[in-house]
Amino acid sequence: MTHLLSVSDLGREGIEEVLRVADAFAEVGSRPIPKVPTLRGKAIATLFFEDSTRTRLSFETAAKRLSADVLSFSAAASSVKKGESVRDTIETVEAMGMDALVVRHSSAGVPVQVSRWVKHCKVVNGGDGWHEHPTQALLDCFTVRQARGDIEGLRVIVVGDIRHSRVARSQVLAYGALGAKVTLVAPGSLLPPSLEGWPVEVTDDLDAVLPSADVVSLLRLQAERGSGAFVPSLREYTSRFGLTARRAERLGPDAVVTHPGPMIRGVEIASEVAELPQTLVTRQVTNGVAVRMAVLFLLLGGAR
Amino acid sequence: MSRALVLRGGEVVDAGGRRRADVVIVDGVVTAVGAGAANEAPCGATVLDAAGCVVAPGLVDLHAHLRQPGREEAETVESGARAAALGGYTALVAMPDTEPPVDSAAVAKEVLALGACAPVEVAVAGALTVGRAGERLAPMGELAALGVRLFTDDGAGVQDGAVLRRALDYARDLGVTVAQHCEDARLAAAGAMHEGAWSSRLGLPGIPAAAEEAMVARDVALARLTRGRLHFLHVSTAGSVELVRQAKAEGLDVSAEVTPHHLVLTDAACAGYDPVFKVNPPLRTEADVTALRAGLADGTIDAVATDHAPHAPEAKDLAFDEAPPGMLGLETALAVALSAVELDVALACLSWKPAAIAGLSPRHGGPVAEGAAANLCVIDPADKWTVTPARLASRSRNTPYAGWTFTGRNRHTIVAGDAVVVDGEALR
Questions:
Q1: Are B197 and A130 a contacting pair at CB < 8 A?
Q2: ipTM of the complex
């Protein structure tokens, strides 16, 4: 693996390899001293040009459990505020001897651009605009597989703001590659303008597809990015697309619910539903560390 | 002493057709055209070889952003004009979206003065509204008195239909042309590329074809209402081509241009998130490319205009959605056009048709005949060459054709009887 920019860089075999390695690393987290020396001497920078709590902490925890040195950068407290370009920032950080860069940016494609600018660093996409968030989709698959076994043939519904969601784009690729049947559930205004080439079904009727779903992936309505204007009101959104307590009663006995966080309780998910045992949000967060350990290991584990 | 120049052994191509002929030029005027005319040239005349080449009226660009005043790090009138000369142009229209914009006689005079020293003729387009804000008409009469023939707020469309209507009414009796960048700003929103399969997959905000077509349709209605003269800048969609076709069939006084890049590139070029492929209007689909080429061939589209838009390298090192739109065009337009359409169609759309729209005929684009102004280019249609950004004369490097190999290139450029480019090298 040269870089991890998109789930499509991995293919089915690559995804399965990440999940396999993550399985091994998951055990590390339960040890009294949850640390292995695998990446000792390697330096990893997390470059977050867009704020994030869980993804950054997860990557940094993963790197530290692998004994790598971690350098942390956030745009809010950096020279970017003084007008330095992303390219100059990247070149500066790489020149300090980094081995891998985890990049998050509010613009789609920045990690792809970064991969062209670096000389030797491995680049991991930590989420770019509406484009992709590959490690999120990988940890979703890992968590679903842990709960349900093989993903092949499962019915996965992805509900909510697909249009503005990098998680949805990565999930479609990852679940699709592993053989799941993916259905997007959203009003037309929250779908991408074109779904040409996407291996998915589409509906705006959550109630029709909910009972047969094996996996319900809820997305956040990104009201802070203006997604609220794409539906008449949050109330109407919740009434049509929210996983309310009443709707949750119609979930199949083995169905699981995932959410990439942060959850907006009362909008896409009711508080009671967030607390149900089949809602895997906490496990997703725990598994996120193991999956990111696997990604960093596969990128940096070999000889440089 | 007279300045005499001979173009020997070429094939003359102009609006009148093709013929083998030498061309003799004395003091800026064509004095003889014909087989063997070289023998009658004054002694001491400079002879330029044109064997195997096409001698044509110089190319005329309707749409060049020369960035001066205000963005001299990206381009100047001089560097842009040199790029134009190398590309086979003898005249160009400088767009008014400078800083400050060309919305006053003072700024127009500044650009015209810079143009007077440039290697090609520099005509100036005026802003349609003050500050290009789309609200109050710019002093079109004062600018027309300085020779301005084209008025546009290019870079953005005039959103308010009443303002455009007023401009068309006002322009009618001045005998000048209103040129529109058709784009509904609300529909285009913060779009960074064509809205479609690629933008959806790449997660980039898109500009739907409807953002352009909605305004073309509205403006056709306003052309009908006012009987004004309207030019559509850089049409980019199949729907726009059809709307212009209908407007022309109806007898409205409209014309249209297409850029070279919209004839050969599609939105798939954005797949690598390289902002060099970000341009406005955005690169569209294969079906649009096909419709644009057909529109050129059947005369619906009158001109190929570069929309030459230089940007300093740091501006194109930004994230795709943050980078400014625009790509270079002057040094590659001819080669790109030749790769898309027949030579005769390419020359009509690059020379005499745009010259007429710009009000530069017959000084530019006119027939190559005795008594004509000597603004000519000599094209080697068989020259195979590769685009090397570092070797471009433009101050900027944002060409989408880096590494492309084309067949056909300008060899000599004659402006007002002087050779400004000889064998692909700029003399000025």
A1: no
A2: 0.95
